[in-house]
Design brief:
The chain contains ten helices and 35 strands. The longest helix has 25 residues. The relative contact order is 0.11.
């Protein structure tokens, strides 16, 4: 009897294991709080045992299917009307209940850091927007950062649909949120944002292996990174080298070797330190070319009424990394150059009278320092102490430059496989895209690479030519007082040419960038301009002027060139007394600044220095400061050139 009982128990346990293995499972995207695409075929899918019967119950209808030979199953919901909240039940050998589902419009938000950048990074610019962000009809799904070179993934490691409120919106893509606000206001339907973006990523990282075959260099690199041993070796080597550099840096830093204590202590004598202006870069000073650690310090006086109060110290941006101390107390640190330095000073640190501020600046390579034209100060509720002034500095350690990390996650195909492929079954309205900075050194290639990406995504999503709306690169870097060649201008030109791809639109951002910040703070106008474009190409509102002027053609008349444009709206205009940033050239290809005037719906360009003009350029620079051609709807003209001279 005992032997028979053991046999029966074994059979029972095997059946239970088989039953557990048969349980239906859903991808991360199909989850509580999701937004489904209205008036469109909608896929609901998952995994079960081969041949297992699966039923999906939604809004009074039941959809039934069987899992295929490898356990995959799909059902298709058609022509869902906007609304919610709804529940969905998926039944097989087990049952799953999904709650709080809405039907509306779903947009994929992708690209690099300017799309990825969360509201948290611009929170002080938009406090009222954040305070009023209680809107469950706008939801955000943040795709986790990962890469894979060997295969297309079928699911994400984690992720959830999150409704907007003053706390959660801080983690939403800022551009995507402003876009969604406008779309929701115009359509009245729920808006879902799938944020699949990664800072620094080049376009080729977002393209599939099949589509990369037309770009042999990138295709070959993808093959190389299918080797896990190579990846492990690179990661290990980079880690060892970088840790070794920082270990040596800390050992050499004289700030920690003095008997009196480290240089950030409150009573450090800085009278013999060298003077230096803050903010400024190190170029043109005795620190030019220095890599290692430089300590900055200064004294500030605090009035009695501000003593012991909490405050915020704002130190613009610092290249490359920093640690900040006040009266010997650590208040904050940032490990790389881009984020704004905004550190809370807790109560009890600031005192009446003299206070010391000390900043340890690490320079990895290149031109370090405090970024000019940023805010530097200690901010209280009602008072601000300006920190732009003479500071003192002392070299703590001099090092050889640190070679950069190998960013494996940016290699070709890796992000497509891990961060896009798992989304391809999910029904969407369209894509908004902000990327190009990482490809600015290869603008000619981008002319083919970017359209190839759009075709690749549309083919693999199998939803036709869905709207694909992108941001043209903003103005950035040093402005020049003479016409220049520009890789960023050529990249913008590649983006402009991409408008030849059907059902695309471009938001021009040439007027809302910052010369000293690759991540400009104005995300609202970018989101709004993307939404204008969406109204036109995604929602069919032909009365909307969705773009600024786009160059169409030119005509030479004597000493003048007459330019024609599309998208002039209710007319052309210039912001300011006269049009700026037009350049003109003769057959010698030497461009000079030109006079330009609006004549009706055209622009006439001329210069006394060019007797026989053949070409015009507008806003052709990394940072075309002052470029001011708009339509009367307030949308800026895209930069352009009429020539095709390569230099």
């Amino acid at each position: 009897m005992r032997k028979r009982s053991v046999i029966f128990l074994s059979i029972f346990l095997l059946l239970q294991v088989a039953h557990l293995g048969a349980q239906v499972r859903l991808p991360r995207l199909i989850s509580d709080g999701m937004i489904l695409q209205r008036q469109s075929p909608v896929n609901i899918w998952g995994w079960a045992s081969p041949g297992e019967r699966v039923s999906v119950h939604f809004t009074g209808s039941t959809y039934t299917t069987e899992a295929n030979s490898v356990g995959r199953w799909f059902v298709k919901l058609n022509n869902l009307a906007p609304g919610g909240p709804y529940s969905m039940t998926i039944e097989a050998s087990n049952s799953i209940l999904l709650r709080d589902i809405y039907v509306g419009d779903v947009w994929v938000c992708s690209g690099q850091s300017n799309m990825e950048l969360p509201m948290r990074r611009v929170s002080w610019v938009y406090p009222e927007v954040i305070a009023n962000a209680a809107n469950p009809m706008i939801r955000h799904f943040n795709v986790p950062t990962q890469y894979n070179f060997r295969e297309k993934l079928t699911d994400l490691e984690h992720g959830a649909w999150i409704g907007a409120n003053p706390e959660t919106v801080l983690d939403f893509s800022a551009i995507a949120y402003f876009f969604a606000l406008e779309i929701h206001a115009k359509t009245g339907v729920p808006v879902g944002l799938i944020n699949s973006s990664l800072g620094g990523s080049p376009a080729e990282a977002w393209i599939s292996e099949e589509a990369l075959k037309q770009f042999p260099i990138h295709f070959d690199e993808l093959q190389r990174f299918k080797n896990d041993k190579l990846i492990d070796q690179i990661i290990s080597s980079d880690k060892e080298r970088i840790q070794g550099w920082y270990n040596l840096l800390n050992q050499k830093d004289e700030a920690y070797s003095e008997k009196q204590g480290p240089w950030y202590r409150e009573n450090t004598d800085i009278t013999n330190w060298q003077p230096i202006g803050v903010p400024s870069y190190w170029s043109g000073t005795e620190l030019e070319g220095v890599n290692g650690v430089v300590w900055y310090s200064r004294k500030v006086n605090i009035d009695k009424e501000l003593a012991d109060k909490s405050a915020m110290i704002i130190l613009g941006c610092i290249v490359d990394a920093d640690s900040v101390f006040i009266n010997g107390r650590f208040v904050g640190s940032t490990g790389y150059q881009y984020p704004p330095r905004r550190y809370i000073i807790p109560e009890g640190i600031l005192k009446e009278g003299e206070n010391s501020i000390t900043v340890r600046v690490i320079s990895n390579s290149g031109n370090a320092g405090f970024v000019p034209d940023k805010t530097y100060g200690i901010v209280f509720n009602t008072d601000t102490i300006d920190l732009k002034d003479e500071w003192r500095y002392k070299l703590g350690a001099r090092m050889e430059p640190l070679a950069g990390e190998t960013f494996i996650r940016w290699k070709p195909g890796g992000l497509y496989n891990a961060m896009l492929a798992p989304l391809l079954n999910y029904s969407i309205k369209g894509v908004i895209w902000y990327q190009g900075e990482s490809n600015a050194g290869r603008p000619q290639e981008y002319t083919e690479l970017f359209p190839a990406l759009i075709r690749n995504w549309r083919r693999d999503w199998n939803r036709g030519d869905f709207p694909f709306i992108f941001v043209q690169l903003a103005n950035f870097m040093k402005a020049y007082d003479h016409p220049t060649e520009s890789g960023w201008a050529k990249l913008r030109e590649a983006q402009l040419k991409t408008l030849d791809v059907p059902n695309t639109a471009m938001a021009v951002a040439i007027d809302i960038g910052e010369w000293n910040d690759i991540h400009p703070l104005n995300k609202k106008d970018v989101g709004n301009r993307l939404a204008l474009a969406a109204q036109r190409i995604a929602y069919g509102n032909t009365s909307v002027v969705h773009s600024g002027p786009i160059y169409k053609s030119m005509e030479v008349k004597g000493k003048k060139i007459i330019l024609s444009f599309t998208n002039i709206g209710s007319g052309l205009m210039n912001k300011g007394k006269e049009l700026k940033h037009f350049a003109i050239a003769g057959a010698d290809g030497k461009f000079v600044w030109a006079k330009a005037k609006i004549k009706g719906d055209k622009v006439v360009v001329y210069s006394k220095k060019v007797k026989k003009p053949v070409a015009v350029r507008y806003a052709w620079a990394d940072n075309p400061e002052g470029a001011n051609l708009y339509n009367k709807e307030g949308l800026p003209a895209s930069p352009f050139r009429t020539d095709c001279w390569e230099k």
